[in-house]
Amino acid sequence: MIALLKRDLALATRAGGGFGLAVAFFLILCALVPFGVGPETSALRPIAPGILWVGALLSCLLSLDRIFALDHEDGSLDLLATAPIPLEAVTALKALAHWITTGLPLVVAAPVFGILLHLPGQATGWLIVSLLIGTPALSMLGAFGAAITVGLRRGGLLLSLLVLPLYIPTLIFGTEIIRRGAEGGDPTTPILFLAGITAGVMALVPFAAAAALRVNLR
Amino acid sequence: MSIWEYANPVKFMRVSGAALPWLAIAAAVCTLGGIAWGFLTPEDYKQGSTVKIVFLHVPAAMMAINIWVMMLIASLIWLIRRHHVSALAAKAAAPVGAVMTLIALATGAIWGQPMWGTWWEWDPRLTSFLILLLFYIGYIALWSAIEDPDSAADLTGVLCLVGSVFALLSRYAVLFWNQGLHQGASLSVAPGERMSEVYRYPLYVSMLGFLLLFLVLVLVRTRTEIRRRRLAALQAREMRA
């Protein structure tokens, strides 16, 4: 299992793996918003948590179809399906690899982009906390969407259509944490909700993703 | 005699073919009758004539949710017992459900403009229906994207299960996110809260009509799907011969 994780990380970080593209996309998104709504602090500050979370969502979406598509093309997915470790574990590991290469860089980069959007200083900590708790769920749900669309030739657009509605609860609680944190309120409740969603997703979605993969590998 | 006998397409086609004309007549009578009766009701003292949109809005909203539940049950039956009719019924129900959701949203907007002074409000109920519509669209899109019918049935079934959990989760997450403008239950059992009998009885008729209408549409669409499947099987046999 460790070997599989190492292999996926190596594939993602080497040339052509697209490592860092998500962060670059995130940066472009955060740079485009002020052109759309105007550069005033009063305009940017209230929408900053939402923009940062929606940006993280979309950047995450960008690399989802790579989770299984390349392995499906060269046949290594069939080998993984017949490997001694269960397919559920494979999907969870693939999601973990996706999170390390996409979600974690986003978490690290988000505070910097928060400065661009005039996010209040005391909210930065909550931004990191909410992304750290929420992005694993994004990767796991994305792996489920990727598992469903892996056999399709033009699955990319469909993938976003299927996955984005699943992201709504995560988005709601994630932004709520930052909003309450920025206003000096107590964000414990949304943190617990978000952590609950992530824990539930990590526990249950691998089974759905593995079921979808088995159908696609039939 | 058990319900599983109808999993046999031949039996399903025979029974549904016989029942369809009667169901269609009943659906037409109840839907048109309920709405026409609704138009003859007196005007509400506060809402004026706009109250009459309730005879379209409430049944459509009710069906929008219940059709998803029916799809969930049909998907479960397909995933567990592999009855093809069940998968096809889920496929047939999805566009009907999506249209019901659209009707509920559209009539709500038309009513909201004079009453709330806005076409759209990010109210929990309205938002949940918009999310439900997104789930319907994703489900329909997945059905149309996959060529192999059995894989399509399996994958949409799994999507329906996961989607149900998340639609429900979104419903309550949205409550957390924004407080509502939409009134509570229109058909509460508690005496003081429910609407006057003048409006309630036409509404019941209209709701029954929408339920029958849904049954008719799903039966017709399922029969079409079964025939399409048979046609494909015949063509495949031709090709081999």
UniProtKB/TrEMBL annotation, chain A:
Print the keywords alphabetically.
Answer: Cell inner membrane, Cell membrane, Cytochrome c-type biogenesis, Membrane, Transmembrane, Transmembrane helix, Transport
* InterPro entries xrefs: Cyt_c_biogenesis_CcmB, Cyt_c_CcmB_bac
* A GO MF label: heme transmembrane transporter activity
Transmembrane regions: 12-35, 47-64, 96-119, 125-150, 157-178, 190-213
Q: Does the keyword Transport apply?
A: yes
Q: Where in the cell is it found?
A: Cell inner membrane
Give the top-rank taxon of the lineage listed in the UniProt record for this protein.
Answer: Bacteria
A GO biological process held by the record: cytochrome c biosynthetic process
Quote a single Gene Ontology cellular component term: plasma membrane
Q: Determine if Repeat is one of this entry's keywords.
A: no
Which Pfam families does this UniProt record tie to the protein?
A: CcmB
How does this protein lie in the membrane?
A: Multi-pass membrane protein
Q: What does this protein do?
A: Required for the export of heme to the periplasm for the biogenesis of c-type cytochromes.
Sequence similarity: Belongs to the CcmB/CycW/HelB family.
UniProt protein name? Heme exporter protein B
Organism, as annotated: Paracoccus methylarcula
From TrEMBL, chain B:
Q: Which UniProt keywords apply?
A: Cell inner membrane, Cell membrane, Cytochrome c-type biogenesis, Membrane, Transmembrane, Transmembrane helix, Transport
Q: Which residues cross the membrane?
A: 20-40, 60-80, 92-114, 126-146, 158-178, 198-220
Pfam families in alphabetical order:
Cytochrom_C_asm (PF01578)
Q: Which domain of life is it from?
A: Bacteria
Q: Where's the Cytochrome c assembly protein domain?
A: 4-182
Q: Kindly list the places in or outside the cell where this protein is found, as annotated in its UniProt entry.
A: Cell inner membrane; Membrane
One of the record's GO molecular function terms: heme transmembrane transporter activity
Q: How does it sit in the membrane?
A: Multi-pass membrane protein
Q: Which InterPro entries match?
A: Cyt_c_assembly, Cyt_c_biogenesis_CcmC, Cyt_c_biogenesis_CcsA/CcmC
One GO cellular component term: plasma membrane
Q: GO biological process annotations for this chain's record?
A: cytochrome complex assembly
Q: Give the family, as the similarity comment puts it.
A: Belongs to the CcmC/CycZ/HelC family.
Give the function comment from the record: Required for the export of heme to the periplasm for the biogenesis of c-type cytochromes.
Q: Which PANTHER family match?
A: CYTOCHROME B_B6 PROTEIN-RELATED, HEME EXPORTER PROTEIN C
**Record's protein name:** Heme exporter protein C
Species of provenance: Paracoccus methylarcula
The taxonomic lineage of its organism, from the top, reads: Bacteria, Pseudomonadati, Pseudomonadota, Alphaproteobacteria, Rhodobacterales
